[in-house]
Amino acid sequence: MTVAFLQLTLGLYFIGVLLSLVYLLRRSEFLARVALAATCLGFVIHTVVLAVQVFSGEEVQWVTFHKALSFFSWALVVVFLLVVLLQRLYVLGAFILPIAFFSLVSTAILPSETPVLQPMFRAMWVHVTLSMLGAVGFAVAFVAGVMYLMQDRLLKSKQFNVLSFKLPPLDFLDMLNQRSMLLGFPFLTLGILTGAMSAQLTLGSYVSWNSEQIWALVTWVFYFVVLMGRVTVGWRAKKAAYLTIVGFAGVLLTFIGVVLKGNGAPIS
Amino acid sequence: MNIIVVGVSHKTAPVELRELLAVPDSRMGEALNRLMAHAGIREGMLLQTCNRVEVYAVADQVEQGFSAIQEFFVDTHFSVSAEQLLPRLYCHAEDRAITHLFRVASSLDSLVVGEPQILRQVKDSFQEALTHNATGVLLNKLVKKAISVAKRVRTETGIAENAVSVSYAAVELAKKVFSNLAARTVMLVGAGEMAKLAARHLVNHGVHEVLLTTRDPVRAADMAARFNGVSIPFEEFHANMHRADIVLCSTGASHYLIGHEDVERAVRARWNQPIFLIDVSVPRNIDPDVRQVDNAFLFDIDDLESHIEQNREERRLEATRAESIVKDEVAVILKWLQSLKATPTIIALRKQADALKQAELQKALSRLGTLTQQQQEAVEGLASGIVNKLLHGPLVALKSAAQSTNGLVYIEAARRFYDLGRSLSGQESANVQDVQDAEGEDALTDALAPEPTEDPEQKRISRQASGL
Question: A78 vs chain B: nearest CA distance in angstroms?
Answer without folding.
Answer: 24
